Amino acid sequence: EIVMTQSPATLSVSPGERATLSCRASQSVSSNLAWYQQKPGQAPRLLIYGASTRATGIPARFSGSGSGTEFTLTISSLQSEDFAVYYCQQYNNWPNSFGQGTKLEIK
Amino acid sequence: EVQLVESGGVVVQPGGSLRLSCAASGFTFNDYAMHWVRQAPGKGLEWVSLISWDGGSTYYADSVKGRFTISRDNSKNSLYLQMNSLRTEDTALYYCAKDKGLGVTPYYFDYWGQGTLVTVSS
Asked: Chain A contact for B108, CB < 8 A?
């Protein structure tokens, strides 16, 4: 099973600033990497797939990059509604596997 | 609009059984694979099981293999998870999630339900 490791566990950023979240795979997953956002009491929502393609309706301030084993989710100018937990997920190999999540909190 | 509505979550004793359901609407159900993903209280996401578009292929996490069975009824646009020999560590919010593809190759999940809570406790 591919192990996904996210860093940091918690990230404190002020509104309007940039946030950079990292995700590392234990072996190459090519570009088969998705990012999800989960707010308290809500289901996860797909943000990014294919490492860098925004899902339908996702604002342009969200961007993804990387391939192989190293990936980044960047939120260019944080809005109040962006403070949440973010998960990466690889879908290159069975079984699908998620990172442990990064909590993005208000500084 | 895609909708996934889970049901069936209750409090059950260790060793007990439970069947979860997921009612799907807003898309052609039999064109897509479906998953169950769970989230223990205060924890991260754990993939549980996948069923292909036609029910012909199923996959399970090692943690539930041999105890859980995923199934679907395409005539009813419904997904199910039969859970047997339940353990306290199975306590979680169980989400139904739609795959982007057929289930022939791994893919991401483009829609999720709101989840149903399973509590295993004596």
From this structure: yes
Instruction: Tell whether A69 is within 8 A of chain B (Cβ).
Output: no
Task: Write out the DSSP string of B20-50.
Answer: EEEEEESS-GGGS-EEEEEE-TT--EEEEEE
How far apart, in whole angstroms, are the C-alpha atoms of residue B17 and residue A16? 49
* Residue count (chain B): 122
Q: Give the pLDDT confidence of A15-66 residue by residue, as tens digits.
A: 999 999 999 999 999 999 999 999 999 999 999 999 999 999 999 999 999 9
Rg (CA), chain A: 13
Q: Which of B108, B111, B114 to mutate to test the interface with A (most CBs of A within 10 A)?
A: B108
Q: What does the DSSP 8-state code read for residue A13?
A: E
Tell me the per-residue pLDDT of A62-93, one tens digit each, with 9 for 90 and over: 999 999 999 999 999 999 999 999 999 999 99
Q: For residue B106, what pLDDT is reported?
A: 82
Burial of B55: CB neighbours in 10 Å, binned 0-12, 13-18, 19+: middle
